[in-house]
Amino acid sequence: MKHSLLTLLLASGAWASMQAQEIPLVNNIYGRQNTITLNGAWDYIVDVQERGFYDYRMNETRWGFFLDQHQKDKQELVEYNFDTSPKMNVPGDWNTQDEQLFFYEGTVWLRRNFDYSPTPGKRTVLYFGAVNYEAIVYVNGQKMGKHVGGFTPFNFDITSALKEGKNNVIVKVDNKRTREQIPTNIYDWWNYGGITRDVLLTEVDETYVEDYSLQLDKQDWKHLTGWVKLNNKVAGEKVSVNIPELKVKTEVVTDNEGRAEISVKAKPTLWSPENPKLYNVSIARGEEIISDEIGFRCIETQGKQILLNGQPIFMRGISLHEEAPFGGGRTTHVSQSRTLLEWAKELNCNYVRMAHYPHSELEVREAEKMGIMVWDEIPVYWTIAWENQETYANAERQLHDMINRDKNRAAVVIWSIANETPHSDPRDKFLSSLAKYARTQDNSRLISMAMEVTSANNYHNKLNDNMHEYVDVVSFNQYVGWYRDVNDASKMTWEVPYNKPVIVSEFGGGARYGLHADKDTRWSEEFQENLYIENLKMLDKIEGLAGLSPWILKDFRSPARYLPDVQDYYNRKGLVSEQGQKKLSFYVMQQYYKEKSEANKK
Ligand code: GCU
């Protein structure tokens, strides 16, 4: 097998020393200049046994698909060809773009050719909004690095691998589930594999503003505090922070760590669902300008109340998965997120629980513009490998990445660290560490998690979870009416023995849209409607009830929901069908929240 000099060099690993590393997130890529998109049609190769990565002795091969080889003469043996392979859209999951991949869990290679002229003196950064689940990224045959975790952004400095003119990026994506991952190998949503969010290129100087934070001082609402951070530890760099509408124009100078604190007086109109005020903010370092829209608000608790800007607020919520409003698949465009959020607004919601993983940054920004508060969650879901150090490191990294990405989003009011996790000492150690870690990253939001009521003797349900001392809001899921008899709802009492606000983070039941029968017939819309009526009467009795996020806005795909002609691999607990059709229970919830909203105004 003959190879070109370049191929030999690449394969020899001689370039390994030039292998770029994943660099800290170049935050708010959408607000930076010189950004181009690599979204579009990518060539792909399904690689069930990963022979594009391993040789037949299971060693990482030097002749992998990342070399993008082509047969150069009639003798050469090359057994793959991106040029003649099919294409799929990026961003997008492969499950809904190729019916042969509907259930597929494994490796798919994706390639994007692109013409590029690197700007001398600049660094080029390759950004991925998310890849589910593991990504190994190559540029022109050189490994840039690997990222694990399906729902948070990451980026590489690819300057050393770029050429003038024709370039390519090749990504090995593997969505196989494993016991040690976050989430673990069993969960109630579809394992959509692929490059599921935007792929962007941007150029930055050798030294650039890597990150920044700007928020309302919790103790003084006429004071904005924050910081800017350069990628290098360069002192003396001047960075200006401008908020024209607030007549804020300040300049800070970085210290030996490349950081500078921001502290300015201002009188912002506070962000709220009723008035989701956002301010144009620009962060400038010489020619480098980052634009953002930032809201200022204060979220805190007082006893059993949640206070937004000092006023008690009832969290009129709904849970949702990040799945396209019509027909399933990961959402790939903000217009799809907007449709989902408009349904939530129509429900009279002021809050959404973005379950069970960080949704796209663009969805969070859309919620912010629409005046919808956000519960942001990492997928520490069900029975995690609590005693595995790597598993914990994965969870903490995803928590870091979620907070790091969304820390300037006023709409985000709750960081959630878990969902329905079984009690044990290792679980408490794992979760309490996550809760403590979250507080080191951000002190301006509430911490919660979806717990389960574990002690229920007949009709008395008592929440008893050691994690209550680590959260600000005690939230729990319950399924009276679906996994327990709806006729018991009126007899049920709920005891939450903690002086903290309570959110019922899930309740609900299934119905197939258009299936009508009496209220005792499971899967009928009437059954679901009655379940909601009975649950709302029951939940209203909970002392300190500060919010609800019923499960769930829209029917969503799940491999665990098999029932032919009823579920067909859809979880049917949505208030809206996967075709956007509203079920009877939608209107029950809508009316309940309308009354809550009016009561809150009195
Ligand atoms: C759980 C879980 C959800 C799941 C739901 C259900 O509460 O948190 O992810 O979809 O139950 O059973 O439908």
Can you walk me through this structure?
- The chain has 602 residues and is of the alpha+beta class.
- α2 (334-346) packs parallel to α3 (361-370) and α6 runs parallel beside α7 (584-601).
- The longest helix is centred in the middle third of the chain and has 18 residues, at 389-406.
- Helices cover 16% and strands 31% of the residues.
- The model is unreliable at 13-19 (pLDDT under 50).
- Bound molecules: alpha-D-glucopyranuronic acid.
- Residues 188, 356, 419-420, 477, 506, 551, 571, 573 line the site of alpha-D-glucopyranuronic acid.
Keywords:
eight-stranded parallel barrel, binds alpha-D-glucopyranuronic acid, alpha+beta, six-stranded antiparallel β-sheet
Short description:
The protein is α+β, with helices and mostly antiparallel strands and 602 residues long.
Question: What percentage of residues falls in helices of 4 or more residues?
Answer: 10-25%
Query: What average pLDDT do the residues reach?
Result: 95
Poorly predicted runs: 13-19
- Termini separation comes to 80 Å
Q: How many strands in all?
A: 36
Structural class: alpha+beta
Oligomer: single chain
Radius of gyration: 25 Å
- Identify the strand order in the major beta sheet: 24-25-26-27-28-31-33-34
Could you say which overall geometry the principal axes of the C-alpha atoms support? Answer: globular
User: Can you list the ligands bound to this structure?
Assistant: alpha-D-glucopyranuronic acid
